[in-house]
Write a structure and sequence with these properties.
The chain is α/β, with parallel strands linked by helices. It has 5 helices and 14 strands. Bound molecules: zinc ion (2 copies).
Length: 216
């Protein structure tokens, strides 16, 4: 298994990740603007699946085009499914680019606890609403793709349409107390630098709970 990272794509400087199996099949985690860079990172691997952390335009921008060209299946949480075609919900209208990217024709929706497999790879879905109602973290061995839920030293915005500050607080708590099979997890976020879950548990004020203690 190999993880290839492409950083800072498009107007929002969005990260995405290509995971390649031992057999040379690939899964793309998020599909920002920058199709050529993404395809070159996939290289000779065969793209089979595109898994989206949430439905904002900066994470789904290239999904429609890449899915059509490669016949890869697109996956997104049930609650963010409508964002694939709704330019208000996916924020593309607010950014003035609503008609500039190809929409995803067909997507498979997933929910909390679902596991998406490809060869030896097993992607487990952790529903972490707040940034959007269908935001998820995706766990692969001791790696966690956190989308716009958790960043190094920060968290995703909760002031946008379909966001919830209360849900975000609950989701951050879920990550703070998360007990998986590993002692620590590499964090691959939707924006900014990589980190680890334990590092954020120590240093990230949002994950430490200072953002929401007053609500309980
Ligand atoms: Zn977002
Ligand atoms: Zn984003």
């Amino acid at each position: 298994m190999e993880i290839r990272q492409i950083s800072g794509l498009g107007v929002c400087a969005t990260n995405c990740y290509v995971v390649i199996s031992e057999k040379g099949n690939a899964v793309l985690i998020d599909a920002p603007e920058g199709k050529e860079e993404i395809l070159s990172a996939i290289g000779n691997a065969t793209l089979k699946k595109i898994i989206l952390t949430h439905g904002h335009f900066d994470h789904i921008f290239s999904a429609g085009e890449i899915a059509r060209e490669t016949a890869a299946e697109v996956y997104i949480h049930d609650k963010d499914l409508s964002k694939l075609k709704d330019s208000t919900l996916n924020l593309s209208q607010a950014f003035g680019i609503s008609d500039t990217f190809e929409k995803v024709e067909k997507a498979i929706s997933f929910m909390e606890g679902d596991i998406i497999t490809l060869d030896e790879l097993s992607f487990e879905i952790l529903h972490t609403p707040g940034h959007t109602s269908g935001s998820v973290c995706i766990i692969l061995d001791d790696n966690m793709f956190t989308g716009d839920t958790l960043f190094k030293d920060s968290r995703g915005r909760t002031d946008l349409v379909d966001a919830s500050h209360t849900d975000m607080a609950m989701s951050l708590r879920k990550l703070r107390v998360f007990k998986g099979r590993y002692n620590d997890y590499n964090i691959y976020a939707g924006h900014g630098a990589n980190t680890t879950l334990n590092t954020e548990r120590e240093n990230n004020v949002y994950l430490r709970g200072f953002d929401y203690d007053d609500m309980f």
